[in-house]
Design goal:
heterodimer, A: mainly beta, Methylamine Dehydrogenase, Chain H, four-stranded antiparallel sheet, 28 strands, globular, B: mainly alpha, 72% helix, 0% strand, lipid transport (chain B)
Chain lengths: 387, 786
């Protein structure tokens, strides 16, 4: 179908960092951070006009350095955090900071600007997350559903909990935990669980996944050898509080029940190289995206371990009206897990995939060569889930 | 007139003509007269000039009209013809006249002789009547005489009858009065049979007249004596020592004495039970202690069971049937006795069977099982005899059942044995793979190992097939049971044993892929390679060979569904593929790990100017070479794309991957700050997508390509995560050039290596703070030096 075709946007620089503007629930908007060692790095604010299938972009200059990770505040559309490389005196250090974008770009509603105007905008620094004592920042995670005042950052082997004070102009380290053990332990990624009043965080280091309680900063579960090799990314099921997806260099995507971590609940092995990213759909958790350095994005339908294993539940009113119809439906359940689609629009490694926070049927993916692709869930499946 | 030959007769009144066949004509005429069909006449009539048989012109017809005939003749014929016709007719008339005379003469003679005969018969009958009258008179006289004689003798006859009746009665009474004494005497003489006969003769009379005191006395005496007798008989019976004949007599007599048959049966059987149970206990003792080894081998055990227990059982059954069942007695007794016997036999045989089964279960050795088969055969054979004696019992069926169970169990054990043999083989291979490495010798020859393992597994299968085949040998009694003809061959041997084993091989193979995947290669990669080849060999030839062998040895008559060869082959192929993929993955990972460590642990910004190829690259090339040798031992070379002659002379375009252009993007003016190598971009646009962990083909080049792909892709991804200084970039350039010098020869498409190495160098240049590439000539010098 015509408007199911992917929309492609190219950046001039290489890029790894992508996030939806989480606080925005009406417009489809993504933030992309670029990586360039020689030029000023940029944050592209990508607006997608769903009706006209048009991309509008705004560019902000991020002078601090090349962006390795970007995350948007869940409470304030204008606030975002980045992890960036700072090079000085032949030393490379990864730092993190919280930024505010100019007001008029927050909702990105104005006309697509000319090239001349787009380059002038700059980010306003709110505060640094001081990591001099802790090492390189791997990522910054906002407290989901929160008021945008709490952050967690992963720096080498430290898990740091920050409080933003004085309208985000000051970041205070409120708590921290460190990984102890042999060798150089380094966190690679982390994810904050939206369940349990946001008191749980999961982190990945090497082949292990750990769960943390943010109140005591103690480890609550530990999945040793979760993947055969490095674990690259994690995501929590938004609707099932104990379910966690992970992916890694063994080309697999695994699904875990954190109450019983001896065996994964399910394993997918569809990619032909490292899987860098895994994401649950925010509303329909059977839809799982994974992006890999084999340049592919795979959309899977994991019905059997989703919160709706028997499909969309029929309301009681409907039930009484259509008794027969309901019975018919019952016989054809439960649905099978399946791969819905493999997207091959990228030609380089895909390091980030994200669902839109506004439209649950839309997602963006970013490959290293700076290509951003916006795709939709196939219409047939969408109707199948909804109806 | 028309027509030659016997034409129609001439006109009447012209005698003298004699047509041929005239002899028959009178009869013909007569027949005609009486309305019978005359074929001859009709034939003639057909030739009549008028051609009108039966019409007025047919001279022989019934409706002949002379006038019409003559008119017709005159009209149709010439004079000469008329003349001929006339002569003809005259001849015919003459012949008819003579015929008539002959007939009259002949019939007259016959009539005369008939009249004579009747006259003679009249005379004879008259004589006979007279004689009959005479006879009747004589008979009447005789009857009269006879009546007179019998009336005179009447009185005497009645008297004689009466007297003889009294005599008989008296003799009977005398017998009765003498009976007690006689009985006593008989008992003393041990002539029990005689005594019983006497008693049974008198019993009914005594019973009838027992209201008379004298008779009652006799009866009491007799009963006392007989009770005594019965007692003695019982004792004798209970003793059991006496021979079968005596025993039979005893039972016979006891039964005649109205002893309850049921009781006797019970008694007999309980005797027999005691003896048989003692034998069973002896058998049980031979089983040995639970858990311990049996004292005797199974053939001896079964032999003993057959010879002692089963044969005694047969004896008991035979004598019992003779005593109780086959007697011509009341139907009820026979049935009751039969029922008792069946219950008795079934209960004892059950115990026996359980012993036999326990003994069979102790048979765990998986070597030659001819002893077991012979034992089972003997067991089965003896049971047939027993079953023939007592068809009502279910021993035969149960015995067969036991044999079937034993056979099934055997197949199961053989399957386990095969599996453990296979595991042992694998362990051996593992050890021989590990051992020389410790000794520092050359690595073991994989091809030899493969040959050994596949030959020994095949041998093992063959020998197991021979063992199992014993079950279906012609001289084994149970081999013609339907189970052994059908299900045993197809479901048991083919499916359960052979197919099961092949499946377990594939299963084991798959397990290697699964367990080691996460735990980081506890299986030596060489073993994976070897097993993959083994599975592939199975797919191409071994499976069909084994199955053909099995099907030949066990002609399957059963039509139950069997696993087709193709599905097994597919299974094996899949296992081979998985193993090989896994091998590639494991080897690729080993090299990847080295590369990754080397990239991750170095400070690339502050590194010194490169003077050498890094050691890790040499190690990578070395490892790749040894993998190449290893794979080459088992797999064919495979197909390469044509190579350009200057493979190693290629230079890197450092900025080739600087793809700052966004090709599909809406055409914003790109800032395009770097040189863009359009050519390389176009090349990338058209080059095929590279699947890194993709299935490989069964040849050396494909395997090596897979491994190198994995390694270089890892290299690329690691490089992209780092930041480089000027010398860092140059070091990578040197390393990549070195890899290019050596790796191209291993892969099917050298462009692949070039492409990946280009990407690496390009990405490094991108990640470089101060991208000043090294001179190609310098790189070459460094690489050639080391």
């Amino acid at each position: 179908m015509e408007d199911d075709a992917p929309v492609i946007y190219g950046l001039e620089f290489q890029a790894r960092a992508l996030t939806p503007q989480i606080a925005e629930t009406d417009a489809i908007r993504f933030l992309v951070g670029t990586q360039s060692l020689k030029y000023d790095n940029q944050i592209h604010i990508i607006d997608f006009d769903d009706e006209n299938n048009i991309i509008n972009k705004n560019v902000l200059i991020h002078q601090a350095g090349e962006i390795w990770h970007i995350s948007a505040s869940p409470a304030d559309k204008g606030v975002l955090a980045t992890c960036y490389n700072k090079t000085s005196d032949s030393k490379v250090m990864t730092c993190a900071a919280v930024w505010r974008m100019p007001k008029e770009l927050e909702s990105g509603s104005h006309e697509s600007p000319d090239d001349s105007s787009s380059n002038t905008q700059t980010l306003e620094l709110l505060c640094h997350l001081d990591n001099t004592a802790h090492g390189n920042m791997a990522c910054v995670i906002w407290e989901p559903m929160g008021d945008g005042k709490k952050l967690i950052s992963l720096a080498d082997n430290h898990l740091l909990l920050w409080d933003l004070q004085e309208s985000s102009s000051n970041a205070v380290l409120s708590n921290s935990a460190a990984l102890e053990g042999k060798g150089q332990l380094k966190f690679t990624s982390g994810r904050w669980s939206p369940h349990h009043n946001c008191t749980q965080v999961a982190t990945a280091n090497d082949t292990a996944i750990r769960g943390w309680d943010t109140r005591s900063m103690r480890q609550i579960y530990y999945i040793e050898n979760a993947h055969g090799q490095l674990v690259r990314d994690l995501d929590f099921n938004p609707n099932k509080q104990y379910y966690l997806a992970s992916c890694g260099d063994d080309c697999k995507v695994k699904f875990w029940d954190t109450r019983n971590v001896t065996e994964p609940v399910k394993t997918l092995e569809e990619h032909s190289h490292w899987v860098w990213n895994v994401r649950y759909n925010h509303s329909h958790d059977q839809l799982v995206l994974s992006g890999s350095s084999d340049s592919r994005i795979i959309l899977s339908n994991m019905v059997s371990i989703s919160s709706e294993p028997f499909g969309h539940l029929v309301d009681d009113d409907e039930l009484s009206d259509q008794e027969d119809h309901h019975q018919e439906e019952k016989t054809k359940e439960p649905l099978q897990d399946s791969i819905i689609a493999t997207y091959e629009e990228h030609e380089d490694s895909v390091y980030a995939v994200e669902w839109s926070s506004a439209d649950p049927w839309l997602f963006a993916s970013l490959s290293y060569d700076g290509r951003l692709v916006i795709n939709r869930v196939p219409r047939a499946l969408k109707y199948h889930i909804l109806l | 007139m028309s027509g030659p030959g016997p034409g129609p007769g001439p006109g009447p009144g012209e005698p003298g003509s004699e047509p041929p066949g005239g002899k028959r004509r009178p009869h013909g005429m007569l027949k005609l007269y009486y309305g019978l069909p005359d074929p001859a006449g009709e034939a003639r009539g057909g030739l009549a000039p008028g051609g009108d048989p039966g019409g007025p012109t047919d001279i022989n017809g019934a409706h002949f009209d002379p006038e019409v005939f003559l008119t017709k003749l005159r009209k149709e014929c010439s004079l000469a013809q008329l003349m001929d016709c006339e002569t003809d007719m005259v001849k015919q008339i003459r012949a008819l006249d003579s015929d008539m005379q002959t007939l009259v003469y002949e019939n007259y003679n016959k009539f005369i002789s008939a009249t004579d005969t009747i006259r003679k018969m009249k005379n004879d009958f008259k004589k006979m009547e007279d004689e009959m009258d005479c006879l009747a008179a004589n008979m009447a006289v005789i009857t009269e005489f006879s009546a007179r004689i019998s009336s005179t003798l009447q009185d005497q006859h009645e008297q004689i009858t009466k007297l003889s009746g009294v005599h008989t009665l008296l003799r009977k009474l005398q017998f009765l009065f003498e009976l007690p004494a006689r009985l006593t005497k008989c008992v003393e003489l041990e002539a029990y049979g005689q005594a019983v006969r006497y008693y049974s003769k008198a019993r009914s009379i005594l019973h009838q007249y027992q209201h008379m005191p004298s008779f009652q006395g006799i009866q009491d005496d007799c009963q006392k004596i007989m009770a005594n007798l019965a007692q003695k008989l019982r004792e004798k019976f209970r003793d059991g020592g006496s021979g079968a004949k005596d025993l039979a007599e005893c039972v016979e007599l006891l039964l005649q004495l109205d002893e309850p048959a049921e009781e006797l049966c019970d008694e007999f059987l309980s005797h027999a039970r005691c003896r048989l149970e003692a034998e069973l206990e002896a058998l049980e003792a031979e089983l040995g202690q639970p858990g311990g080894a049996p004292i005797t081998d199974i053939l001896e055990f079964i032999d003993r069971g057959c010879n002692i227990f089963v044969s005694n059982m047969c004896l008991v059954i035979a004598s019992y049937q003779e005593l109780f069942v086959s007697r011509e007695g009341v139907q009820g007794i026979t049935r009751m006795a039969q029922d008792k016997l069946v219950a008795f036999v079934n209960s004892l045989m059950e115990t026996y069977f359980s012993l036999v089964e326990r003994r069979i279960q102790l048979e765990k050795g998986v070597g030659d099982n001819s002893l077991l088969v012979r034992a089972l055969d003997r067991f089965h054979r003896r049971l047939q005899a027993l079953a023939k004696l007592l068809p009502a019992s279910n021993v035969a069926a149960e015995g067969t059942e036991i044999v079937v169970r034993a056979a099934k169990e055997r197949i199961r054990q053989y399957l386990l044995a095969l599996q453990s043999f296979y595991q042992d083989c694998l362990t051996d291979v593992r050890q021989s793979l590990a051992a020389p490495r410790l000794a520092g010798k050359e690595s073991p020859n994989l091809a030899e190992l493969l040959g050994t393992i596949s030959a020994s597994v095949l041998n093992q299968i063959k020998s197991v097939l021979t063992y199992v085949h014993l079950f279906t040998a012609k001289d084994i009694t149970f081999s013609n049971k339907p189970y052994f003809k059908g299900e045993f061959c197809s479901q048991g041997v083919r499916e359960g044993l052979i197919v099961g084993f092949i499946k377990s091989i594939c299963q084991t193979a798959r397990q290697f892929c699964e367990t080691t995947g996460d735990k980081g290669g506890s299986t030596p990669p060489a073993l994976l390679l070897l097993l993959s080849r083994l599975c592939l060999d199975y797919e191409t030839s071994t499976i069909s060979y084994i199955l053909t062998l099995t099907d030949e040895q066990f002609l399957v008559q059963d039509h139950s569904p069997i696993t087709p060869v193709t599905s097994l082959c597919a299974d094996a192929r899949e296992a081979a593929q998985r193993l090989l993929n896994h091998y590639v993955k494991v080897q690729g990972l080993i090299i990847s790990q080295m590369l990754r460590k080397s990239v991750e642990t170095r400070d690339w910004v502050n590194t010194i100017e490169p003077r050498n190829v890094r050691a890790v690259m040499k190690r990578v090339v070395e490892d790749t070479t040894s993998i190449d040798v290893q794979v080459g031992l088992l797999y064919e070379e495979g197909v390469r794309k044509a190579q350009s002659s200057d493979s190693s002379k290629r230079t890197f375009s450092v900025y080739s991957s600087s793809r700052q252009q966004s090709r599909y993007a809406p055409s914003y003016t790109p800032s395009a700050p770097l040189d863009t190598n359009l050519l390389s971009n176009i090349q990338k646009l058209f080059s095929e997508r590279i699947d890194i962990f993709s299935p490989v083909e069964f040849n050396k080049v494909s395997v090596l390509t897979g491994i190198i792909k994995i390694s270089l892709k890892t290299f690329l991804e690691c490089v992209r995560l780092r930041t480089f200084g000027r010398y860092g970039l140059q070091q990578i350039q040197v390393d990549c050039y070195y890899l290019q010098l050596y790796l191209w020869r291993f892969v099917c498409d050298e462009n692949l290596v070039h492409f990946l190495l280009d990407e690496i160098v390009g990405s490094t240049a991108h990640r470089c703070l101060d991208p000043v590439p090294m001179e190609q000539s310098v790189i070459e010098v460094i690489c050639e030096r080391g």
